[in-house]
Amino acid sequence: MADPLSIGASVLAFIGLADRIIRACKYCIEAVEDAPKDIQMILGEVTSLRAVMDGIGDSSASSLVPNLYGENGPIRSCKGCLSSLESLLPTNIGQPTAGKRRKVILVELSWPLKQSKVRKLLAEISHHKATLLLAMSGDMSRDLKEIRLGIERLQSTISEDILETVLTRLEVLYVVIDAVDESTARENLLAMIETLALDQRFQNLRILATSRQYFDIEQSFSKISTSISMSNPMVDADIRKFVYSRLRSSHRLKRWNARFEEIENVLSAMAQGMFRWAECQIQAIERLRDQSKLQQLLSNLPRGLSETYTRIFEAIPEEDRPLIRRILVWIIGHSQSPWIYHVGVNAKLLLSAVTYEYLGCEANNQNSIIDLEYFQEICSCLITVRHVPGDIFDTLLEESPGSQAKVGTDGEDLYVSLTHYTVLEFLLSPHVSQTNFAFFAMSSELIRLEFARTVFKQALAADPKGTSTDWIHDREAYCLTLGCALYICNTNESPSVAASVYPKWDDAND
């Protein structure tokens, strides 16, 4: 690994070279009225690359990618590309551009002869820049882990005595603890709440805790709390409004308009405060093709979300189960990966990746029956497709239950995620392995391994001549980029797991 002084000098030389190219591009754009568009592309690419190098110089990314500054590393390769670009641009800048000088600039550019070489260099720079961004993201991931550990250490030093001291200065302190059932250390949290509720030192502390109905939580709270059920008139009224709105806004439900009031009454009465349960039953009604089946469905509604999901997975035909499992693994795996956007996996990418894994080849839109509409049909009530226009990094996604894909889009702005966190909770629950749909039983580690394997497998099969760096929409670019990120994270966190998932990667690097 290079010493810090050499690294600093290398970064400064790189930035100096980038600055010269930026000045040359600006000079050409200002001097020539109809300057080639490629000049603008060079300016944009080199400007963004310079910003990345500024970040690299201030980070410890080189410890994650040891050959970052090596002979064949991305920084030296980028520098070589920049040197080649500089040789294609005018060298005498800053002089007057009127008259004959303008003609000299055009002669110096000789752009038609240089265009193909420039675009090839830009593609190579873009590829290396993706590697540098990956190194920076890995460095940020490590920093976040250190921050988290620091917070955990801080939390462990906050003692009951300190809390008691704080409370002596307050007349009353209200604390809201939401979703106790989602705590990963539930026993510790329950013990802490019990202490705060019973210890006389904290008598001016008032706690409101929310949770779904779990036996251990009910047992722990039964003697220290007053129960407030979410199944109450106010929530029931809100659910009725929700059902009313959904029935009248769905085109597929218009045929049931004569029975809307009956459906509202039944669903509102049985929802027990669960909007998600009501939505699942409405989607089940939407799928009915035989009108005579409605009464049977309303008379035999599932009790709770667990039974609802059980019926959904039981109803999936055997021939569709392998495909649906792949879809779920990709959606969940993407959401849990060291990634930088959280609106879901791009629909175009998901379709391409799952089809490639399932059929062993790229999806052919002309012949394949596997398309986004098919995904939504077979995964009904399990996945949501949202339209997110523009740059996903600048978009604030608003949650919208039951939102659907917009008509007439090719998937570029569509993103797929699980409809609700309870879908994942259900798949991870131990009792799924004891059912007749045990094929869908999962664990966090299993999802991680399955997703890493398929990403890595598709990365190895990628076209070595491919130049795409669009890791949002392009399957190969996604797998190559995320494959590296998964490798780095898994190697740092769990070398044994990395060895079982990535043996060929290590062989390839030897």
Mean pLDDT: 78
Order of helices and strands: HHHHHHEHEHHHHHHHEHHEEHHHHH
- Total DSSP E strands: 5
SS class: mainly alpha
Question: Tell me, what's the shape?
Answer: globular
Number of structural domains: 4
How many helices does DSSP assign? 21
Strand order of the largest sheet: 3-5-4
Descriptive report:
With 510 residues, the protein is mainly alpha-helical. It folds into 4 domains: 4-153, no CATH class; 160-221, no CATH class; 233-301, no CATH class; 318-509, no CATH class. Helices cover 59% and strands 4% of the residues. Strands 3-5-4 form a 3-stranded antiparallel beta sheet. A two-stranded parallel ribbon has the order 1-2. Strand 1 (173-177), helix 7 and strand 2 (205-209) form a beta-alpha-beta unit.
Features:
NPHP3-like_N; three-stranded antiparallel beta sheet; 4% strand; two-stranded parallel ribbon; repeat; Ankyrin repeat; 510 residues; mainly alpha; 4 domains; 5 strands
Structure described in brief:
The chain is mostly helical and 510 residues long.
